Amino acid sequence: MLARHxxxxxxxPAAQVNRRCVGRRDGLAGMRxxxxxxxxxxxxxxxxPRPAAPSGQPHAEEDQAKAFNRTSDTEPAPxxxxxxxxxxxxxxTGPTLVVAVRRPAADDTSxxxxxxxDDRSFYAGRAADFLEARGVRSVFFAADxxxxxxxxxxxxxxxxxxxxxxxxxxxxxxxxxFYGFDSDxxxxxxxxxxxxxxxxxxGQRDTLTPQGVTVDFVVxxxxxxxxxxxxxxxxxxxxxxxYPDSARLVEQVASxxxxxxxxxxxxxxxxxxxFTVLLRGAIDTVIPIRSGTAxxxxxxxxxxxxxxxxxxxxxxxxxAGEIKTYLNRAxxxxxxx
Length: 337
Prior knowledge:
This protein has about 325 residues and is an alpha/beta fold. The chain contains six helices and 15 strands. The chain has helices spanning about 35-45, 60-70, 110-130, 185-195, 245-260, 315-335, and strands spanning about 15-20, 85-90, 95-100, 135-140, 145-150, 155-160, 165-170, 175-180, 215-220, 225-230, 265-270, 275-280, 280-285, 295-300, 305-310. Strand 5 (about 145-150) and strand 6 form a beta hairpin. The chain is elongated, with a radius of gyration of 22 Å.
């Protein structure tokens, strides 16, 4: 996801870097459920009598719909504690992510707390979509204690107040858990390390090929796409002061293209308001103005599940350093095909 922040000031000296995750919060107004309500709904889904789905193929669509499309009228009234059970039970039959929050206290009516849980619900749901496409079941609970049955054993995990608990587990392995996350990237990075040794597999539906689709760019090796959105020229009647940077961008691309190519990096340039990229079997649609900048750089690698936006015009030495940093991360993360 791209961080939501103001448009970069024209010719601002401070460039911005945004790690893009697996979706956008922009355009998803109306799908902002509170984490507590989401967890309670998922608790009901987890306790239903349906037979367990095969490993990696849970009742994903139905459960996710229950968990992430509940409205705020499912929340307990002020002054009354949540009526969901204090202990939530789950049986582990395959790779699983459990996200749990402690049931709310009777006097917990904080607006800031509701806003924070709202954000976490969104990020947790988006991470769940990403992981379930790769065979990891995701379940959500509001409970004081988790009763986990795995490998013929029973484990009880107390859920602390405050940050949500992320609990990763799979049959035959010790679990990994931590509290708190700032984005879906935190969850997915931890999952990549735990389930796949850092090598994130393609999604089950990410099977597109260059021969079967029409896109602006196809990423087969590390790629940086310099962009300048022509839409920025029509923002005001005055000549946009960022326009000279577009000429500098063209010169910069021309000067760096050959040296980066010899290092195994493709450097491209576009002036489109939006452009499409085929990456890891899926299409990424990039709309620069939504990333908070009309000029900048989009970085992608077939070895990294995340892409990156570098907003603003970057001096060449700083850009080269950031590209190197991104590539180092991609090489550490890796990916399987």
